[in-house]
Amino acid sequence: xxxxxxxxxxxxxPYILPSQKELVGHVLKVDRIADLPIILYNYPGRTGVNxxxxxxxxxxxxxxxxxxxxxxxDIDRMHxxxxxxxxxxxxxxxxxxxxxxFAWGARSWVCxxxxxxxxxxxxxxxxxxxxxxxxxxxxIMPVISSPRWRRASAxxxxxxxxxxxxxxxxxxxxxxxxxxxxxxxxxxxNASMTASTRWRRSW
Length: 203
What we know:
Structural class: alpha/beta
Mean pLDDT: 83
Distance between the termini: 43 Å
Shape: globular
Number of helices: 10
Number of strands: 5
Low-confidence stretches: none
Strand order of the largest sheet: 1-2-3-4-5
């Protein structure tokens, strides 16, 4: 709060693989000390810990725990969150499921891809979350979820792809990145940029 924060994004602590009870203690202690709105960040693929219902039952009772960014990729879990925890705003953290998230009531979307294709990501969010126009959303979706992009979405290639796209947008000539991901990353980046240009022309 003293540093100017008006909300917190709280994930499971790294490395230690806490139990659900320990995870409850972690979040509630952050809540007690900071007294700021909290967005839970469930990303078991990175933290090794899923925020289970046992955990959610406890922390959702706090007035400060207002939202969950769900990045597990488990579509059934997303349905469960929407049904069982309506007091928690649902935020999409899985780009390939964003249409489903919006259809189930999500109104926000935290995504890395918006750093290099901001116009397309904002257009998709606006179409679905603001206008409720899912036909329009489906037409935009291929730009940000092409098969090439998905194949190259391993963490070791994402930074290369984002750098290539960012530099290409600024008009720089970009060579391949370092092996083993350089050619794959550049191919995916070029595919995304081509799709984006095609979509903008047809819109």
